Amino acid sequence: MANKDTKKVKTLSDMIDYYFRSPQYRSLRGRTQMDYEYCLNNALATKISESKTLGSIKLDRLGKADCKLAYQEWLTRGVRTANITATTLSVVLNMAEQMELLMINPMKAVKRMTQKPRQVMWTPDQVRLFLDTAYSDFKWRSVGLLVHMAYEFAQRVGDMRLLKWNNINFEARRLDLTQSKKRAEVHLPIEDNLYKMLQQQQEDFGFQEYVVPHVRPINGAYRPYTNIEVSPIVNEVKAVCGLPSELQAMDMRRTAITEMVEAGVDSTQIMAVSGHTNPNSMKPYLKHTFASANNALSRRGEYKHV
Question: Where are the domains positioned within the chain?
Fold first, then answer.
């Protein structure tokens, strides 16, 4: 960037626009760019007072108090969302600090809450109710299918929202996926109900590359949901069908893996589905539940002679 461009940077909004034109932003993967854009645009719109948004603040006057107020507002959408937004904005403010447009990145002074390890799981009835409701309205359909796949395949929501049609082998009825987190490759069968939904989805959205894009184009183009766009829609569906607020889409992977553990599936077979490469990684799913205890004692009974 030429120095003359930095003279145009007055507000935080200007700085974010500058960042979007920078080589640092252009070097990010496409999916990361979309996530950053969504987070930063939401950060800009955060109200600090009745007449002031975060984006309207002069960059050299952006203070710790402003960032703390913004973070408290982001927390209303969840700890994870707040921390992701704070981290993303810090990337931009670090750049401003390096450019000497800021004395210090004020977001560094914000103490972030620690997200507790989640143990929430869905029941089969809750999954069915959610999917029936999501599939009943076209505007929720893609998110319904996304959650359906995360549950049936025991995969991360992030990998499902970015799934492309070339990952689906309809002839073999198989999903071929390289996971984003550990780059593990998994090859998973597609059960009948999910297969039918995928066929319907392909009829309607097979003209573009993503399996579960926004159901309506944005600026003339279809794109996948960003990292934090899914939760509000899931919450909307839950509210309509009366499901508990603590249930989240990210719990589907944990639910599916725990169901396999409780069903007595061998850990090596579960790892072939989940993509785990170390048996120790399975420990969080070995919970002391009634189903697990009942299964263990029932099997024990096969060998007792009392």
Answer: 3-109, 124-297
Specify the pLDDT at position 227. 74
- For 37-61, the DSSP string reads HHHHHHHHT-EEETTEEGGGSBGGG
Of the candidate CATH numbers 3.90.1150.10, 1.10.443.10, 3.40.605.10, 3.40.50.970, the domain formed by 124-297 belongs to 1.10.443.10
The pTM of this model reads 0.70
d(CA 275, CA 272): 6
d(CA 113, CA 109): 13
Q: Supply the pLDDT for residue 2.
A: 44
* Residue-level length of the chain: 306
Residue 8 has a pLDDT of 84
Q: For the domain 3-109, what is the CATH superfamily, name and number?
A: Tyrosine recombinase, N-terminal domain (1.10.150.130)
pLDDT reported for residue 267 = 86
Asked if 73 and 46 touch (Cβ cutoff 8 Å), the reply is yes
- For residue 154 the two structure tokens come to 């025991």
The residues of the chain scoring below 70 in pLDDT are 1-5, 286-293, 295-306
Q: What is the pLDDT of residue 285?
A: 75
